[in-house]
Design brief:
Elements lengths: L22 H15 L6 H8 L3 H8 L2 H13 L2 H10 L3 H15 L10 H4 L9 H28 L8 H20 L4 H13 L5
Helix pairs in contact: 1-2, 1-4, 4-8, 5-8, 6-8, 6-9, 6-10, 8-9, 9-10
């Protein structure tokens, strides 16, 4: 039986995520959840609660948990070309290392963000399920170390660092200290403590 002209048709059923869904804000909250708890121990229920969305909305907007994490990592790490430009454009390799170390000490002890580094904390376990995640995170660290080593090589070539300086090892030292500071920050180390570690590390920088 067709509805009469006096019977209004039912409104069309809405599908998909609600209009109020703010993808960028939801991604930020997912980033914080992974940052606090790590990749594997953060469940879909944890993510939907943090992001304020339903599971279907999460999957529609971001795919699966792994793709959501990788997008969160890209948000956290920022533009890789901008990072490369900052390292390459630093007056010296020492300045580049100082900026990386100081920036880490400040970022790891923020008042409104989780302590430590998302890249260090998110992939603590090594199950096969997290292999792609671990590779992506390792690639970010490796890329930063390579750019810093290249900047060190430029100083060696210009004579502002001693000939024979191992640029790979020196860049690796900076990255190791940065990762170590993440652990210390999670253990409760203060910003001042991490900045003191930064100063001690830079005091060991080779000079002519």
């Amino acid at each position: 039986m067709k509805p009469s002209s006096e019977q209004p048709l039912a409104p069309p059923r809405k599908t998909g995520r609600p209009r109020s869904f703010d993808r960028d804000a939801a991604l930020e909250q997912a980033m914080f959840a992974f940052w606090r708890h790590g990749y594997e121990t953060t469940s879909i229920a944890d993510l939907t609660a943090a992001m304020g969305v339903t599971a279907p909305s999460l999957y529609t907007a971001f795919g699966d948990k792994q793709r959501l994490f990788l997008e969160a990592v890209r948000r956290y790490a920022g533009d890789p070309q901008a990072m490369a430009d900052r390292i390459a454009g630093a007056p010296t390799a020492y300045d580049a290392a100082r900026d990386l170390l100081t920036g880490a000490a400040i970022a790891y002890t923020g008042d409104t963000t989780p302590k430590g580094c998302l890249l260090a904390s998110a992939t603590a376990s090594g199950s096969p399920d997290s292999a792609a995640v671990q590779r992506a995170v390792a690639d970010i660290r490796t890329t930063i170390a390579r750019h810093l080593a290249d900047r060190i090589d430029r100083d060696i070539a210009r004579g502002t660092l001693p000939q024979g300086t191992d640029s790979t090892a020196l860049a690796g030292l900076v990255m190791a200290v940065i990762q170590g500071m993440s652990v210390l920050a999670r253990d409760g180390a203060t910003r001042d403590a991490l900045l003191s570690i930064t100063s001690a590390t830079l005091a060991a920088w080779p000079t002519r």
